[in-house]
Hints:
The chain is of the alpha/beta class and 260 residues long. The protein is built from 9 helices and 9 strands.
Amino acid sequence: MNLRLRILRDGPRLAARVVSKGYLAALDFVYPPSCLLCAGEMPEGEHFVCGECRLVLRPPLTNECDRCGAPVGAYANLEKGCGQCRHEVFSFDGVIRLGTYDGALRKACLRAKSSSGAGLTRGLARALFREKEQAFHRQSIDAVIPVPEHWTRRAFHAHYAAETFSRELARQLQSPWAHRVLIKRHRTAKQATSPTPVRRRQQQGTFGVRTGSDLKGKTILLVDDILTTGSTASAATRTLKQAGAKQVVVAVIAVSPLRK
Ligand SMILES: [Zn+2]
Ligand SMILES: [Zn+2]
């Protein structure tokens, strides 16, 4: 029988066999694990964001202020915070972040927030854990809590960056993910346009702690995607501390480069 006839006769059967046996291998061939940022091929053992992209996401100044996460020069005096935060009143006890909200990391944050950004958000959480593993382990974190969104906003989103980010961080840290402890009582106006004092007023009474939550003496990792003025994280921290939390450390993907 000539080849053409054989393909006509056996084609469908052969195709079914290829699909059942070789499907997964074929997928690996067509889609080798790629970096979520640059789509480049990933070396073995890397996940989500490749080593090169992790370098790009790092701010040029490698030292940072533990109090607010701002990049600082090597000889900056950080005794009472850095030049940016020294006169700011924060309720939280420190900030752990991947970088600043500009350049490649700003683009990554915007993509992470989008409805298809869950994978990238988890990748950024892994990248943060890798970069700051020691800083995380210096705290003995009892629970990981995301800064919540009001349910009327949350309901319309496929994924919510702070929630996805916090869940993956909790997984990496092997700490409990307590995403229902902190609640947002009412909607606040979109903040980007409000000046700082207005933001502070808007934040009063925004958050609450679900009844029955036990926070006494606990160290909480409070997680958001971006830290702008710190007023949202401060308001959430006050609520957690009023409920008995001993220490609250904030973890974010990025801090805004200039806060005023
Ligand atoms: Zn990459
Ligand atoms: Zn600072």
